[in-house]
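User: quick one, sequence for these tokens?
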């Protein structure tokens, strides 16, 4: 290959390309019009909304970790020669008697975001922004500052409502119907990341109904609009300038935005905010059941066409579900007209249901669709989910045992109750060993668990289990649905293959 000077090579190439384009019209390509890369500008929208977004500053008094710990002995002051260069240093921490001086309480400060929803001075933010605060100050875009008082807060959806007394009406924003938000819609966040006030970022709705295991009502909007520390409590807007969510969390290995931000949808927070403004607390609906997901194998064991709904694993004896006739093993597929596609749909819908409202609940029970009527009670936020009492068994003198499905099972004896810490008022078939690598092992079945039902039939002895498994095999069932209880009385269903 000939070697050319660089300038000649560039000129020759240019001439060759020019000749090619002139001689061959088919080589001339026209660039197609590119799709819009986004809104031409959000400047007008930002200018209209930015005064409604605030910076929230909090302060909290903290004390030493060991304050009030009488068991912690005082440390004597080291003996130093007079005039020692370390004498002044140690005098900061020890008094004239040589006793340790307790550290003084100190103030810590934190920053977050919020937004005005009522011109009279109602402001919304995250609960974690103001949690534990002694003082809350709201800083506005025009530089003014106002002290705020807490009207109410809810930890489960991480929202708090504040009140300020402004000298004139404030700029306020309104909520949108977040249920109408689609994946791919543009979204704009305004907040105070790292204390940098009035910061605007733009992105899209990346996903809906995200569960990040932060609470019982997770159904976050996911966005790639940049959200960082300090954005918490700020609004996520649609392109109409209405609030579709409250920016609450990020997933990040670095602590900064990597495009995985999460906002609590407006549809979730609005009922909570209304209750906090009216009552200063939440008043959620309560059904009184413990539920779990319907997996593919559980659906197969129940004879369902596909996995759907919420499987009832336990019923609170004092809750509204009990008199309504709901039972463990029922699958709730519709509640008050709302389809329950998966387990986590139900807690959110029940919580939003007004207390004392009577609703219809559609369940699947042993292959049949039934409709039950339930009057919703009020959730006591401090109570545990389910307490179960299963009666008192007859304790045999000698344990009876069997093995099936990778499980070693035994009747209950006094010795086994003591070994596995099982109460005298509990009955069932005790699992004493689980084969390593078995399906039961993979599904976290443990020695000490009790089998209460097999194939939705109660069992009280290993013989009952064997008999029921044989019946299921003869009927052509491929999965055996077991209702298990741990020693604490927590219930769950597990499906194990019969092959």
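Assistant:
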């Amino acid at each position: 290959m000939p070697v050319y000077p660089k300038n000649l090579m560039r000129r020759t190439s240019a001439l060759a390309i020019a000749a090619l384009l002139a001689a061959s019209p088919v080589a001339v390509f026209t660039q197609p019009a590119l799709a819009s890369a986004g809104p031409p500008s959000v400047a007008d929208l930002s200018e209209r909304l930015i005064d409604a977004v605030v910076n929230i500053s909090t302060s909290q008094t903290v004390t030493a970790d060991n304050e009030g710990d009488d068991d912690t002995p005082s440390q004597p002051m080291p003996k130093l020669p007079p005039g020692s260069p370390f004498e002044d240093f140690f005098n900061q921490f020890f008094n004239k008697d040589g006793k340790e001086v307790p550290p003084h309480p100190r103030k810590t400060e934190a920053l977050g975001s919020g937004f005005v929803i009522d011109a009279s001075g109602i402001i919304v933010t995250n609960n974690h922004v103001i949690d534990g605060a002694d003082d809350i100050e709201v800083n506005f875009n025009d530089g003014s500052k106002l002290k705020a008082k807490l009207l109410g807060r809810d930890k489960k959806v991480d929202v708090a409502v504040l009140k300020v007394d402004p000298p004139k009406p404030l700029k306020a924003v309104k909520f949108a119907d977040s249920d109408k938000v689609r994946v791919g819609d543009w979204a704009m966040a305004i907040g105070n990341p790292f204390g940098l006030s009035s910061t605007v970022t733009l992105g899209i709705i990346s996903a809906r109904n995200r569960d990040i295991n932060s609470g019982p009502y997770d159904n976050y909007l996911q966005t790639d609009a940049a959200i960082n520390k300090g954005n918490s409590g700020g609004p996520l807007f649609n392109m109409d300038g209405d609030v579709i969510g409250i920016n609450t969390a990020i997933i990040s290995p670095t602590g900064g935005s990597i495009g995985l931000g999460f906002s609590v949808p407006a549809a979730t927070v609005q009922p909570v905010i209304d209750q906090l403004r009216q009552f200063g607390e939440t008043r959620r609906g309560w059904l009184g059941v413990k539920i779990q997901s319907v997996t593919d194998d559980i659906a197969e064991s129940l004879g369902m066409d596909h996995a759907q709904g919420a499987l009832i694993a336990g019923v609170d004896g004092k809750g509204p579900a009990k008199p309504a006739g709901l039972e463990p093993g029922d699958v709730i597929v519709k509640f008050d007209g709302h389809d329950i596609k998966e387990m986590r749909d139900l807690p959110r819908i029940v919580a939003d249901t007004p207390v004392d409202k009577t609703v219809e609940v559609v369940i699947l029970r042993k292959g049949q669709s039934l409709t039950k009527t339930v009057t919703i009670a009020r959730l006591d936020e401090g109570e545990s989910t389910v307490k179960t009492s299963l009666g008192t068994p007859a304790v045999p003198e000698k344990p009876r045992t069997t093995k099936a499905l990778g499980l070693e099972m035994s009747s209950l004896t006094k010795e086994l109750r003591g070994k596995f810490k099982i109460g005298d008022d509990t009955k069932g078939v005790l699992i004493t060993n689980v084969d390593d690598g078995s399906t039961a092992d993979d599904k976290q079945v443990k020695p000490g668990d009790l089998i209460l039902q097999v194939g939705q039939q109660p069992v009280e002895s290993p013989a009952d289990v064997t008999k029921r498994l044989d019946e299921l095999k003869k009927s052509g069932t491929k999965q055996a649905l077991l209702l298990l209880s741990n020693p604490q009385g927590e219930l769950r269903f597990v499906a194990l293959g019969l092959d």
